[in-house]
Structure formats: structure tokens, C-alpha cells
Write a structure and sequence with these properties.
By secondary structure, the chain is of the alpha/beta class. Helices cover 40% and strands 14% of the residues. The chain has one domain: Rhodanese-like domain (Oxidized Rhodanese, domain 1, 3-Layer(aba) Sandwich), CATH 3.40.250.
Length: 114
């Protein structure tokens, strides 16, 4: 069966946890913030203390980044523009052994609008 990108996102969301912007603001200091948008998107605005590793290279770079290498039980909030890429990235992180990664529902757009 052929799937669309949105089908992949919907499937990923069934396998991960999401956190609302309101909840994220309350616990932000307890989490690493991983922004999986492209560098230009990240440069235009990001969550406090966010680290940028674009979605396209995440699986190849996460284990080499000093904030995440060997931190498989670290609490991570994954953020993108609207929540799709972060859902896919969170699912990938779980497969790589990052057990406490969650996706920011609505992404940076929802954060900026709040």
C-alpha cells in the first residue's frame, strides 16, 4: 500500500508521545530541546537553548553531538515547524534507543503563537 508523507506522520504519532506548548513551557528546563528544522528556519527563531540537527541528517549526527552522545535516557523535546518532522524524528530517536524523546505538538509555530 502506497503511503503519503502525512500517513507516515500519522503512523509515527501512534508510536510516540507529544507534549503541548503549555506543558513544555512548564518543564522546559528539565529537557534537552532538539530542533530538527533546516538551519535557515532555526536561525529565524527557536525555543530557548535549542540544538539544531536537521531531520535529514538526524540519524547520522545525533550520536556524535556532545549534548546527546551516550545520553539515551535523557529527556528530549523534539521540535520542528508544525509537528510533522518532529513526530518522524521522535520515532527515529526511539528506534535509536533514545527512550525519553517526545514531540512538541504544533511545533515552533504553536510555540511562537502562544
Amino acid at each position: 500500500m502506497k503511503m503519503t508523507a502525512m500517513d507516515l506522520v500519522a503512523n509515527a504519532k501512534q508510536n510516540i508521545s507529544e507534549i503541548s506548548v503549555a506543558e513544555a513551557k512548564q518543564v522546559l528546563s528539565e529537557y534537552f530541546i532538539l530542533d530538527v528544522r533546516e538551519p535557515a528556519e532555526f536561525a529565524a527563531g527557536q525555543l530557548p537553548n535549542a540544538v539544531n540537527i536537521p531531520r535529514g541528517v538526524l540519524e547520522f549526527q545525533i550520536n556524535n553531538h556532545p549534548d546527546f552522545a551516550g545520553q539515551h535516557t535523557a529527556k528530549i523535546i523534539v521540535c520542528c515547524q508544525s509537528g510533522g518532522r518532529s513526530a518522524l524524528a521522535t520515532e527515529s530517536l526511539h528506534k535509536l534507543g533514545y527512550t525519553n524523546a517526545i514531540s512538541l505538538a504544533g511545533g515552533y509555530k504553536a510555540w511562537a503563537e502562544s
